[in-house]
Amino acid sequence: MPLEKFEAMLKRTMGLDVQSIGRPMLERAVHERRDKSGLDDLDAYWLLLQMSEQEQLHLIESVIVPETWFFRNREAFNEMVQLLPQRLVSASLPLRILSLPCSTGEEPYSIAMALLDIGMPPQHFRIDAIDISPQSLAIARQAAYGKNSFRGDFLAFRDHYFALNEQGYALSETVRQQVCFIQGNLFAPGLLYGEAPYDIIFCRNLLIYFDRATQHQAVTILTQRLAPEGLLFVGPAESALMMQHALTPIKAPMAFAFRQGAPRQDAAKPAPAAVFAPQPPARPAPRSAAIRTAPSKARSAADSPPLPQATLAQVQLLADQGKLDEAASLCEQLIQRHGASAAAYYLMGLIHDAGDRKQAAADCYRKALYLEPAHAGAMTHLAALLQTQGDAAGARLLQQRARRSAENNPP
Question: Which intervals carry biased composition (Low complexity) (predicted)?
Fold first, then answer.
């Protein structure tokens, strides 16, 4: 049985563009779920999918590979607390914040820790965290994490808010009670029906899984849920898309933040500590992990798996010889075998570019930026593609980011 029906179902139910994950991953997920369901063929499994919403969710969870950790892309949390005094001028307490998709909870809990660290009283903010995966939400509600959820050099928050036990690092109840987890689909008509708009929305690294039309639909839904002049944080590879909507970029390198509404002059940012008077902690509190300055390199080496350089060189050699299809196939095998990496996706993008497969090239450059936000090569080539597609504003934004990346990370 061909996989087109399964592709169409995933597109209909969750907006997934199968090209974003690759058909081999879809094929593997479908066969794994068929085997776990105890069925002999894909026709029988297809019938099961039509009858079981639970099995649809299992298949969705099989094709979604959550990759998250606490204070991922730290600059977004920095900017959130810096902009908070301006946001409170037009917001009514409690401050309403949305994290979607929230995956296994690291992002919404990071938001809560960042706000608590600047002295915001718990009763002054509420975080709704939404994800399509019941399995991810179960992990989030349990709030016990392994070492992979703590990356980078700034981990003082772990000592302050977590206790190590037999299950891992257990999050304190003070943080847990600030987050309400909800199982839901961004495209479900009744999602958040009747809820007041949100002052801040984090929707990072979701849009890269959609085709262009679905991306614009998703951004429209998000802006409808955003309060006037509310703040929207997106992923590194998604910022160019925001320029095509009524959103104004905030001048904060690597934060990928946008404001609802037309451009206006930003007032000077007051220090967050002047807004709330923190209560003296029972023990000395470490400086907030959210407001530390990250090292000059945007990502540590531990953030992505090691690459077999000899294999990459072989891919490059095939491409240089004009064997683009062979090079693309080998590069895809590399990603499947060793995991996603910015270097591999960037090389795949160059191969598609050379083969005049512009949309596939753009998708690969976006994935490279998802894994390495400061990848200047991916930014430059994606900007060139956007320029040819008539998206001058998006191209200009990426070019500016590429220049900043080169200045901040000299060779």
Answer: 285-295
Pairing of strands 162-165, 125-131: unpaired
> Residue 294: which of 110, 152, 130, 101 has the closest Cα?
152
Q: How far is 342 from 354, CA to CA, in rounded Å?
A: 18
Enumerate residues 6+ apart whose C-beta is below 8 A from 14: 60, 132, 185, 187
Neighbouring residues of 21: CB distance < 8 A, sequence distance ≥ 6: 63, 209
Report the distance separating Cα 111 and Cα 176, nearest Å. Answer: 11
Task: Look up residue 71 and give its amino acid.
Answer: F
CATH number of 301-408: 1.25.40.10
The residue ranges of every structural domain in the chain are 4-63, 74-291, 301-408
**Strand order of the sheet with strand 162-165?**
144-145, 168-171, 162-165
Q: Which of 36, 43, 60 is nearest to 5 (CA)?
A: 43
- Total length of the chain: 411
In this prediction, residue 275 carries a pLDDT of 41
Tokens of 346: 């960037």
Distance CA 155, CA 14 (A): 34
Beta bridge partners of 126: 96
CA atoms within 13 A on the CB side of 158: 19
pLDDT at 289: 40
| pLDDT tens per residue, range 276-335 | 444 333 333 343 344 333 333 333 334 444 445 557 777 877 776 667 888 888 888 888
Eight-state DSSP code of residue 308: -
Give residue 351's pLDDT.
Answer: 86
The listed CATH number (3.30.70.1130, 3.40.50.11720, 3.40.50.150, 3.30.420.40) that belongs to domain 74-291:
3.40.50.150
Low-confidence ranges of the chain (pLDDT < 50): 265-307, 411
Percent helix, strand and coil across the chain, each to the nearest 5 = 55, 10, 35
Between helix 23-36 and helix 53-63 the angle, nearest 10°, is 140
| Contact between residue 291 and residue 120 where contact means Cβ atoms under 8 Å apart | no
Q: What is the pLDDT of residue 183?
A: 92
Structure tokens at 359: 């949309």
d(C-alpha 52, C-alpha 48), whole Å:
6
Q: Residue 134 corresponds to which tokens in the numbers above?
A: 């019941």
- Determine the Cα–Cα distance for residues 250 and 236; give it in Å rounded to an integer: 14
